[in-house]
Amino acid sequence: MLKIAVYGKGGIGKSTFSSNLSAAFGRAGKKTIQVGCDPKHDSTFTLTGNLIPTVVEVLSGCKFKTDEIERDEIIFKGKFGVDCVEAGGPPAGAGCGGYVVGETVKLLEKFGVYKDYEVMIFDVLGDVVCGGFSAPLQHSEQVIIVATNDFDSIFAANRIATAIGIKQKTGGGTLAGLVANRASNAELVGPYAARIGSSVLTVIPENDGVRKSRLTAQTVFEQDPTGFIGGPWTNLAQRLLAGVPLVVPTPIPERELFSQLGAD
Amino acid sequence: MLKIAVYGKGGIGKSTFSSNLSAAFGRAGKKTIQVGCDPKHDSTFTLTGNLIPTVVEVLSGCKFKTDEIERDEIIFKGKFGVDCVEAGGPPAGAGCGGYVVGETVKLLEKFGVYKDYEVMIFDVLGDVVCGGFSAPLQHSEQVIIVATNDFDSIFAANRIATAIGIKQKTGGGTLAGLVANRASNAELVGPYAARIGSSVLTVIPENDGVRKSRLTAQTVFEQDPTGFIGGPWTNLAQRLLAGVPLVVPTPIPERELFSQLGAD
Ligand SMILES: Nc1ncnc2c1ncn2[C@@H]1O[C@H](COP(=O)(O)OP(=O)(O)O)[C@@H](O)[C@H]1O
Ligand SMILES: Nc1ncnc2c1ncn2[C@@H]1O[C@H](COP(=O)(O)OP(=O)(O)O)[C@@H](O)[C@H]1O
Ligand code: SF4
Ligand SMILES: [Mg+2]
Ligand SMILES: [Mg+2]
């Protein structure tokens, strides 16, 4: 089983990347589940065509007694045979933002989900890798960081790399690589990935159809049935199935990152 | 004393906005302190010209015994008479990301900082408004949310508005308004602000000098000594000193936000 955690700063394109990757695995006949771990709870929107009920909504409906929750209350069928889950998040300002992500990971374990799927993808907010937001690191074998050629997304990637280094000591996943999204090349992401001992898995260009996917609720494979636009995802799914090198990254000291990348 | 908390999603321009606002208050002769509350610890970079030592660095140096810390170990002099503090953040993956922000707010209270300044600005990461990241809400009277005309920053603004509603019940600050940054108008921010019972304080255009300020370490008032580019900040500082209406916002149900703002 491939257990993948996708991290990156908010708005960088994690959900878009994850959904199209899940779809690519589904099209390759692999039984796949995608778990959205962002309070924004729209990770699986293009796979289901709507905003599915979140774990936090279901938990609130039964006064947070996880024993009372059935599997089909939180796992929904999506396109290409991909099953979908959305953790959601407690309202901002109340409790720990990552709490529900941690609970979701535990619930899936309780349902024995790990043995039912060939691919599992966690799509996680990476601005703070603390509390429940770091739980998916513990339950995955490989991590993909989505960034672009700008300071903020690489700074967030460096913090995620730090968290990977810490969590892998207790069995957490290691780094498969970085994805440069909405980019024509990897001019900043590439040197950074190499510097931390990793590499760029793929570069995904800016694409207008993808930009509107939150409105059209389509994956790249529906937007372009020829599979051309979906190329980067189909190719990456094949490579991940074949196995890519996994490393424990060596993050760059933050102050050095500033002097190297300073301004966009 | 004006106690202002500036919130917004990561990378939206909170620090740029805060530093120029602090500079505008300083130029108006008001004794001002700016407190960076983002693990990125670059909030006051254009005010000091460098990355000042963070509270977390100072705390780690004395095994987190806050009693041993002196005021001048964490408060540094910046331009225009603005004093600067950076909370910093624990390494990602270790403990609560917001912990240090909470500790910083407590330390400043211990030093009696609240009575020494006429203006205090907290610059806070707004992706998750939980743990210590919500502490500045408790210690401020008014909140300014920085957004732009896109879905992600408005979704984050809505979560921040939710947190304001919760924290104001125990004495937390209320909403002064939203700022549309890197925008030529407030076409999405405006209707959203009105919808939650607030308004747009100012629209700040995209500006190349501002974009490079992380490299040049300059506020707008050094880039343009005529004060023209700094106009929005000078004007807003005056209005905040005169007093703007403060409201308890009524956030929009999240699913409604999706149907209204769906795609960029
Ligand atoms: N390669 C791309 N080209 C164009 N738009 C993109 C691309 N990747 C993501 N987007 C757009 O960026 C926005 C944020 O993407 P999303 O996947 O929701 O980010 P995240 O999950 O990291 O918050 C969405 O509107 C999405 O359509
Ligand atoms: N009005 C603007 N015009 C151009 N660039 C801007 C503007 N506001 C912010 N920026 C740039 O955006 C980047 C992120 O801004 P920053 O203030 O660091 O965001 P935050 O503090 O919210 O993470 C910086 O490179 C900054 O120079
Ligand atoms: S651990 Fe992280 S997610 Fe939880 S309260 Fe602290 S800052 Fe928020
Ligand atoms: Mg997402
Ligand atoms: Mg900042």
List descriptors:
homodimer; 264 residues; alpha/beta; eight-stranded mixed sheet; 8 strands; binds adenosine-5'-diphosphate; binds iron/sulfur cluster; binds magnesium ion
Produce a short descriptive summary.
Chain A has 264 residues and is of the alpha/beta class. The first copy, chain A, has 13 helices and 8 strands.
User: Radius of gyration of chain A from the CA trace?
Assistant: 17 Å
What kind of assembly state do the chains in view correspond to? Answer: homodimer
Q: What is the SS-derived class of chain A?
A: alpha/beta
What is the H-and-E element order of chain A?
A: EHEHHHEEHEHEHEHEHHHHH
Largest sheet of chain A: 8 strands, mixed
Task: Compute the number of helices of chain A.
Answer: 13
β-sheet strand percentage of chain A: 15-25%
Present the secondary structure layout.
Two copies of one chain form a homodimer.
Chain A: E1 2-8, H1 14-27, E2 32-37, H2 45-48, H3 55-61, H4 71-74, E3 76-77, E4 83-86, H5 99-110, E5 119-125, H6 135-138, E6 142-147, H7 151-167, E7 174-181, H8 189-195, E8 200-204, H9 208-211, H10 213-216, H11 220-223, H12 231-242, H13 254-261
Parallel strand pairs in A: 1-5, 1-6, 2-4, 2-5, 6-7, 7-8
Antiparallel strand pairs in A: 3-4
Helix pairs in contact in A: 1-12
The structure holds adenosine-5'-diphosphate (2 copies), iron/sulfur cluster and magnesium ion (MG) (2 copies).
Iron/sulfur cluster sits between chains A (96-98, 128, 130-131, 133) and B (96-98, 128, 130-131, 133).
